[in-house]
Amino acid sequence: MAAEWSDSDLHIALDRALRKASDSRLQVVAEMAVDHHQKYKHVHAALERALRKVAPGDAATYRNILFVASRILTLSYKQLQEKERYRERLRPFVQKVLGLLATSEYQVHCARVVAIWAKAGIYKDEALAELRK
Prior knowledge:
The chain has a single domain (7-132), classed as Alpha Horseshoe (Serine Threonine Protein Phosphatase 5, Tetratricopeptide repeat). Helix 1 (7-19) crosses helix 4 (59-79). The chain contains seven helices and no strands. It is an all-alpha fold and 133 residues long. The N and C termini lie far apart (40 Å). This is CID domain-containing protein.
């Protein structure tokens, strides 16, 4: 059984991952989210809260939020039986972040993340087309 964590533990791990996105920090947040997938609403709320706290125009932090969401989506799709849980819940959120990054220097990162989702089969073609807009 996975170790228990509180909402504050999630916020601390998420804050660390957003300040400096490293592979290990992204993995910690994703594992917390997947291990306790029944708390998916808390995870989504934490991501939304983090997005609201970002200064307008801070594209690097928006990119890091996209990386965190992508890692959660990818790991949950691989490990969970209920593949819809995070996929559908995070789709509007991811679409919002992609929209915020649309005019930034990080467009290449956005395209790469969406291509990874397409290759892994996380989203269907019509959802991918919507995300690519």
